[in-house]
What we know:
Layout (H helix, E strand, L loop, with lengths): L6 E8 L6 H17 L4 E4 L26 H13 L2 E11 L2 E9 L5 E6 L5 E2 L2 E2 L14 E3 L2 E5 L8 H9 L4 E6 L2 E3 L4 H22 L3 E5 L1 E4 L9 E4 L3 E3 L5 E4 L6 E8 L2 H8 L2 H4 L15
Helix pairs in contact: 1-2
Amino acid sequence: xxxxxxxxxxxxxxxxxxxxxxxxxxxxxxxxxxxxxxxxxxxxxxxxxxxxxxxxxxxxxxxxxxxxxxxxxxxxxxxxxxxxxxxxxxxxxxxxxxxxxxxxxxxxxxxxxxxxxxxxxxxxxxxxxxxxxxxxxxxxxxxxxxxxxxxxxxxxxxxxxxxxxxxxxxxxxxxxxxxxxxxxxxxxxxxxxxxxxxxxxxxxxxxxxxxxxxxxxxxxxxxxxxxxxxxxxxxxxxxxxxxxxxxxxxxxxxxxxxxxxxxxxxxxxxxxxxxxxxxxxxxxxxxxxxxxxxxxxx
Length: 298
């Protein structure tokens, strides 16, 4: 029987950000327009794309950057989605209630409606990445969001290091895995260590594609952002956004040092073909995985 091809044109926007929200959002929208001109139906924006990565320092005044969902940004992007006929995935600093904030990806349908949201589940707390100060861990679980572009397994940045998150999205029927992210180098690290970090990041997400037989889209920011506190030299975000197929093959990849719009044609039907010859879901020993629910096996 001949396999039926089901293609989807996708794009992502890699950009640098400043403290000027209007400028950042305009850059995101221009990137969406550029991708739409190439016929894409789904566009992924990077993590917290409306401003600088503010989590380098702890400052209660920065909670003022948060917004509701639906809110100003989803309204502006909704108008763009409807005009261009594209689905947009946008990562935002969500104000859910006074004192309750999330790192949230909003999925906007091509008719401007909010198809759904995903709240980042894994929250880091490392030097330069003080996210636990700002974000409450997500409480929506790992559920794909149904859109006209397919069932999207949206995850956010630190989630990308956890195979459990990708697997649960796959088990719930996700057709693509999408990762808006903000990651880069600390200048103090030697060049060989920087190279290892970037390669590990790419390898990990390509592995999610392979292990689940799903295409993966990753949008990372680029450029150097200073630490507002002055305690560190800041972060040089390494870009390297990419789109990969269900065997981890790179379909498109951005550079490390400049804004860029990536597009690719994804054959969604290949996931079925790949899973037939590499049937990982079939051979999972779900009867023997109970200890995965433990923090550590002492």
